[in-house]
Amino acid sequence: MNTSTSQQLFEKAQNYIPGGVNSPVRAFRAVGGNPIFIKSAKGPYIYDEDGNEYIELINSWGPMILGHAHELIQKAVSDAIQHSFSFGAPTRREVEIAELIVSMVPSIEKVRMVNSGTEATMSAIRVARGYTGRDKIIKFEGCYHGHGDSFLIAAGSGAVTFGTPDSPGVTKGVANDTLTAPYNDLEAVQQLVDANKGQIAALILEPVVGNMGCVLPKEGFLEGLRRICDEEGIVLILDEVMTGFRLSKGGAQERFGITPDLTTLGKIIGGGMPVGAYGGKAEIMNYVSPAGPVYQAGTLSGNPIAMAAGYTMLTYLNEHPEVYTQLENAGNKLANGFRASMEKLGLNYTLNQIGSMYTLFFTPDAVTDFPSAKSSDLPLFGKYFHAMLNRGIYMGPSQFEAMFLSIALTDAHLERIIAANEEALIEITA
Ligand code: PMP
To answer: At which residues is N6-(pyridoxal phosphate)lysine found (predicted)?
Structure first.
């Protein structure tokens, strides 16, 4: 495979952009080698600067659930740009998308649009603090909620009472207000809550984790968190930036039948444009300025081009429930194929999959939390990644990422992925 143009671009990029990329994981550091530079994408395919074609399993980390450059979204965007690019003033479209989100996501009564998932989670936490008058939050080890200071906290082993900054630049004061618990460990959460009575504003989690690879909530975990939050007056925030509009029309909360107080959204909600949102109970959302005292604003929030893309995407999903059947079938077909290959080859790696999200972990042990995800053989994943890339399959370049399927993948594409996976496994374990 010739990737010489990508190599040249990456060399140049490093002179002007930190690490040569605008978001760290894109640099391929976790898997070795240099990133490929993308020129275009259509449907299930993505093309690099050297003209190589790949089948898409990243899909912009989730948003491209209908496949790339979907005609309806293209048309909505090109219609919208005829009327200028930004007004910084209210528009009809914002009302329509808010109404649509409220109708699709069961727990959301009011919603505010922002420009990224990071903004959504930062703002949701601020509102929860304003609403409760409390400072601390609980997050889970291995969950990612964007790069807001409060969330860049890694836990030590076990439940810890006080965080320490994982990233330089996060002040100790902020870190001390973020408590961390192991995912899927209700008891640890209860202990944290007991040790910090009346001080915890919010508990935030990915209801299905994508950011330590795909990790599912154990039975009763989400319900248990809901109960603890109710008992202690803690705002339960489901971060559905990845799972929203993906695991069902109403996200993971609909799929698992759990009602959060606040929800954060991103990715699919913008149809590929920079959009995020946070919403939930009207009683809490009414704390947001100008309805209430918690300040949050944005020059480009509700941007008309982004809203046109998002509104068209959500309308399509709302009106085509068969999308979710297709995504379920695609995910299950892939998982069955991968499992059949592993059985045939006598390999016992762990495949976590739910609907159109999955991760193949290079460990024989069940992956239910961050330590078990980290027990994976990371160099082996790196080899697997390149073996797949060489076979024309474009995957997230880290063991700690979920793959995202789109409805543009036909049975023939899925069979190609299953065949590539089997060949890659043979190659890397030889
Ligand atoms: N929350 C979750 C669950 C995410 O997966 C991400 C991004 N992958 C974010 C928040 C942050 O979103 P963004 O990158 O749009 O800021």
So the answer is: 267
Task: Choose the catalytic residue: 45, 54, 144, 394.
Answer: 144
Q: Domains, the chain, ranges and CATH?
A: 4-69+321-429 (3.90.1150.10), 71-319 (3.40.640.10)
* 118 CA from centroid of ligand 1 (Å): 6
For 330, phi then psi, to 5°, come to -65, -45
What's the 242 CA to ligand 1 centre distance in angstroms?
7
267, 311, 324, 358: which is the annotated catalytic residue? 267
C-alpha count within 13 angstroms, C-beta hemisphere, residue 363: 19
Does ipTM top 0.85? yes
Instruction: Please confirm, yes or no, whether 239 is among the known catalytic residues.
Output: yes
Integer CA distances (angstroms), 110 to 283, 300, 349, 408, in order: 9, 19, 43, 32
pLDDT per position in the chain (430 positions), as tens?
Answer: 899 999 999 999 999 999 999 999 999 999 999 999 999 999 999 999 999 999 999 999 999 999 999 999 999 999 999 999 999 999 999 999 999 999 999 899 999 999 999 999 999 999 999 999 999 999 999 999 999 999 988 533 222 233 444 688 989 899 899 999 999 999 999 999 999 999 999 999 999 999 999 999 999 999 999 999 999 999 999 999 999 999 999 999 999 999 999 999 999 999 999 999 999 999 999 999 999 999 999 999 999 999 999 999 999 999 999 999 999 999 999 999 999 999 999 999 999 999 999 999 999 999 999 999 999 999 999 999 999 999 999 999 999 999 999 999 999 999 999 999 999 999 999 9
267 is catalytic: yes
pTM of the model: 0.96
For a substitution probing ligand 1, which of 60, 118, 152, 237 has the most ligand atoms within 8 Å of its CB?
Answer: 118
The tokens describing 365, both together, are 């042990």
**Separation of 21 CA from ligand 1 center, angstroms?**
17
Cβ contact 97:307 at 8 Å: yes
**Can 39 be counted among the known catalytic residues?**
no
Smallest Cα–Cα separation from 248: which of 392, 105, 129? 105
